[in-house]
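Incident log, support desk, overnight shift.

02:14 A customer reports that sequence design results differ from what the structure should imply. Their input is reproduced verbatim below. On-call engineer (initials T.W.) acknowledged and began investigating.
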């Protein structure tokens, strides 16, 4: 029927529109770099990297500077506790995946 109106249209107030997905990046290696390059091709109003963590804070800070990420952490627990993050991106070699997930789950369970 012509009475049907889409739920979201160009006239929908901006408060009703979906906010950007705020990504946390768990690792500062090459594959995470590739993820950031791909993320940069998406509209910033839809996807933003807001934090990165690495086992070495200096590496996390360097990665953050390279990719214009506002926060860098030297532990995965701190990244997991960041309230500004929606999903976490983690691309570790298999032997590190368990360590990263254990640290994140530990941080979440202690919140």
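02:41 Re-run completed on a clean worker. Output:
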């Amino acid at each position: 029927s012509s009475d049907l109106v889409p739920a979201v249209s160009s006239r929908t107030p901006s408060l009703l529109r979906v906010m950007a997905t705020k990504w946390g990046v768990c690792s500062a290696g090459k594959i995470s770099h590739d993820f950031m390059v791909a993320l940069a091709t998406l509209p910033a109003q839809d996807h933003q990297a807001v934090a990165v963590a690495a086992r070495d804070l200096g590496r996390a800070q360097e990665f953050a500077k390279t990719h214009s990420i506002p926060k860098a952490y030297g532990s995965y627990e701190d990244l997991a506790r960041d309230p500004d993050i929606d999903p976490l991106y983690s691309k570790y070699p298999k032997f590190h995946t368990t360590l990263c997930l254990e640290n994140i789950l530990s941080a979440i369970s202690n919140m």
